[in-house]
Amino acid sequence: GILLSVIIAFAVGAFVQFFTRLIFTFKYQKNLKRFGSIWGGLCIAIITYFILIKGVSGSSFMTAEAKEWIQANTWLILGVSFVGWSIIVQLARWIFKVNVPRIIILFGTFALAFAFAGNDLVNFIGVPLAALKSFQGFAAVPGADPTTFSMAFLSGKVQTETYMLLIAGAIMVITLWTSKKSKHVSKTELNMANQDSTNERFGSSGLSRSVVRMGVNSSRIFKKIFPARLRNIINSRFSRPVTTSENEAQSFDMIRASMNLTVASSLIALGTSLGLPLSTTYVTFMVSMGTTLADRAWGRESAVYRITGVFTVIGGWFLTAIMAFTVSFIFAIMIDLGGIYSIVALFGLALFLLYRTFWVFRKKEKEKKEAVFEEKGNDIIKLCNDYTTKILELVPVMYNDTIEALHNEDRKKLKVLKNQAKDLLMKTKNRKNNFTVRLREIEEDSLQYGHFYLQMLHYIREFSRTLDDMISACYEHVENTHFGTSKIQNDELAKLSEDVKYIYISIAQMVKDQNFEMKKSCKETHEKVLETIVEFQKNQVRRVKHGEDTHTRNSVLYLTLMADTKDLVVDAIRLLKVQSKFIVVEEEGIVAVPHTDLT
Questions:
Q1: 3-class DSSP state for residue 583?
Q2: Which of 108, 173, 469, 566 has the CA that lies 20 to 30 A from 426?
Q3: What distance in Å separates the CA atoms of residue 589 and residue 584, rounded to the nearest whole number?
Q4: Which fold has domain 378-594?
């Protein structure tokens, strides 16, 4: 039943949003003047009925007679509400010039908050209240045996005191208002519903790719069925205005926001009145995803990632339920067998997990803030130079640490470096993928340097890829308990490490100072390193030939490191060539002027 409600919510959300967008388009202000009152009256009438069915009917002050009357007079309530709200909305537009979608969003947010509060309040205080009632029931029977005392009285309806509900509600409000995790959950849904391509949070999967291919093939079939004129008319209704900056862009407009709330409210109210099993959270989320699909926010640029996100969220729901069942079963057995000792141990485990979760989340949020701070600003030259300098200073450190850890067969150190390299690779990938987003925020007079920024990102990406390949190979080598580098191999790699450090640190300093006087020295060192690499490769071949090095895997890894080192220095010099074409001079702002190439 719950799984079926998820599918229905997605389909209905997409269907309703499609026809709503056909009527109002993305430039909806003109059509709102014509149909705004009727549309607003219909939406608010549905939301009003939802409040009566899902919210008020579950409250303690609602009598059984009133509930029966609401159920028996559904169409009367909807009809009167529709006419009444349509008149009120029209008067509000004439007198106060109100924005109709804002009114719908206000009502819908209140209605869904009403429903969510009821459900979550039960989840929040249900278990502790059950424990409290159990203790009170046990205390009311003097001399009762705790091992045989029956809990059958909990199966009946329990009336919770109002003050407890108020206290629990206040705690929930404060927590939701101040919790960064709740904002993180909201960001996830907004990211998946965003009208534009963004920095996608989820990757791609085989299932999502198959779904997207099916969608693309289906669209080709529909193109053959429907005439071109009809398709052009529909496409014109879905034409969106272009946003020139990230500040102007929104995840979605008020029309879609209104439909999210209205459709979710109507489906939840309908399911509740029919006594069908459904989840308020599941329905609301899937309606949002359905309206996103109908608005063509899942284009070829983002569909595969967002569908993966939907599957991940749905899978997480069911996985959470299975884990909760399993863990509860295990904990119950532990408490039954271990008694007070198990309770103390589990309590300590809970505190540890809470602290660890808080610490990990706080660390991730700090890293995100630092990353966002690094990317702020319209000065593309300075932005690029700062980031380039940071990476150039990091690469030789990681290179040297890898050489030492390989020689010492330090698996833990290599694992840390491997994770660091993966993280660096992902960050550089995201930065390169977000190149077009950054261009929208750049001042018009700096756009001519967009290609310069892109070239920098390309070479930084190559550094990261080479470093990741090199460290992963070393980690796998040591992980499989193969021999580390011999003393002579380590000495040769250490010599190369010094040269790599000189090249990278020199380039970093030149980029930072915008002074390229050391470029000739860098190029000479680069040529020397290439000659040294060839010499060391020949030495290794000679050692293998004469039986001085009998470890095959060790030799293969060493030669691989030589090739990776060559790639690192070659890409560094290429980056220097690009950088040296521009000298940044500060005169009432940043000005870039052509400079002589290295060659």
A1: strand
A2: 566
A3: 10
A4: Methane Monooxygenase Hydroxylase; Chain G, domain 1 (1.20.58)
pTM, two decimals, is: 0.71
DSSP per residue over 109-174, as a string?
A: HHHHHHHHHHHHHHHHHHHHHHHHHHHHHHHTSTT--TTT---GGGGS-----HHHHHHHHHHHHH
Q: Phi and psi for 590 in degrees, rounded to 5?
A: -100, 125
Q: CATH 1.20.58.220 spans which residues of the chain?
A: 378-594
The confidence band for 62, taking pLDDT boundaries of 50, 70 and 90, is: low
Residue whose entry in the numeric block shows the structure tokens 């290179």: 399
**For residues 486 and 536, what is the distance between their CA atoms, to the nearest angstrom?**
13
**Reported confidence tier of residue 491, pLDDT bands at 50, 70, 90:** very high
DSSP result, 352-414: HHHHHHHHHHHHHHHHHHHHHHHH--S-HHHHHHHHHHHHHHHHHHHHHHHHHHHHTT-HHHH
Question: Could you tell me which residues come within 8 angstroms of residue 206 by beta carbon, excluding any fewer than 6 positions away?
Answer: none
Distance (Å, whole) CA 335 – CA 344: 10
- Per the prediction, the chain carries an average pLDDT of 82
Beta strands in 314-354 (DSSP E): none
Q: Which of 303, 312, 314 is nearest to 193 (CA)?
A: 303
Closest to 399 in 3D by CA, of 566, 576, 573, 555: 566
Q: Any idea which of 98-102, 175-179, 326-330, 354-358 has the lowest mean pLDDT?
A: 175-179
User: If pLDDT is split at 50, 70 and 90, which confidence band does 431 have?
Assistant: confident
Q: DSSP letter string over 200-230?
A: -SS---HHHHHHHHHHHHHHHHHHHHS-HHH
The percent of residues in the chain predicted with pLDDT above 70, rounded, is 86
User: How much is the average pLDDT of 547-553?
Assistant: 74
The residues with which 583 forms a beta bridge, in sequence order, are 593
Question: Is the predicted pLDDT of residue 245 greater than 60, yes or no?
Answer: no
Side-chain half-sphere of 265: how many Cα atoms within 13 Å?
Answer: 29
